[in-house]
Specification:
Number of strands: 9
Structural class: alpha/beta
Bound molecules: phosphoric acid mono(formamide)ester, norvaline
Strand content: 5-15%
Distance between the termini: 7 Å
Largest sheet: 5 strands, parallel
Radius of gyration: 19 Å
Strand order of the largest sheet: 7-6-5-8-9
Number of helices: 13
Amino acid sequence: MHSPISGRNFLKLLDFSSEEIRFLIDTAKEFKRKKKAGESHRYLEGKNIVLLFEKTSTRTRCSFEVAGHDLGMSVTYLDPKSCQMGKKESIEDTAQVLGRMFDGIEYRGFGQEIVQCLADNAGVPVWNGLTDDFHPTQMIADMLTIEENFDTCFGKKLVFMGDAQNNVANSLMVVCAKMGMHFVACGPAEQMPAADLVATCTELAAQTGGSVTLCEDPIEACTGAHVIYTDIWVSMGEPMELWAERIRLLKPYQVTTELLDVMAPDGIFLHCLPAFHDLGTDIGREIQEQFGLSEMEVTDEVFRGPRSRVFDEAENRMHSIKAIMWATLTED
Ligand code: CP
Ligand code: NVA
């Protein structure tokens, strides 16, 4: 099989055409089928990849590790404490060193300019495993999950509730615009996406038959929605002091059954995870003690309810990251 993105970096979806994103979704579907059927797919035997994590992770790290092993590759994990990058060695020099040893580099961390600098200097494909601005690998899993529930993502309405200017919301706006979907950012004015990204995505959506809307009213936004999506109210790297302000701003945008009731009859709930939906976490318990809130961006009832597809979505991270690695590393 030929890949149209062989040798490319995967830094943000703005760099990819609708056809290339379609190719990745379809490739992820095929890898999922192979995995379930027990068909070997060690297409990248002998290659080596490195995973650089400056922020914590469960799904993304495990997905890169399992997908790498399934493809026959060896995988090295570097956490911030065991790596010189940024402290004793520049990002540029680190990229050159890693590029001499590895066939591909994953980076999760802070500024988009860091993953860009790695890509500019490594000479091998670099994959963005989440930055402050974007979370592109998550998007291929999300589109795959949507297409497992609806025939196509094209023409579907996806509403992002809450902190509509975070990395996941930004990436959803881009992927929806590229794939002809109707994206609605629903949150308070203070947390709406940046105007320049909205303008770019509005222009893209006009070419694909999609649309981009900003809406401050949850019921209006969710009416007829095929997908309601939310994410944590304070993202990694943001100060803990922000919780009080975010709870005040975002509590009206919590995903509740009231919102599910106005969705399309077959509408689904998605969340990239991790989620604060009960008191099963340290931070969740601290927030409850301080602010008296036992659920945050989504109620436990919605999270565990029949419309929720969050664990399919989490599994799909692995199949889609496998597709992204294969498509950029294959030399066929
Ligand atoms: N959704 C996601 O990226 O999860 P992790 O932070 O666990 O990798
Ligand atoms: N917006 C979240 C996504 C986690 C996968 C964060 O950056 O922490």
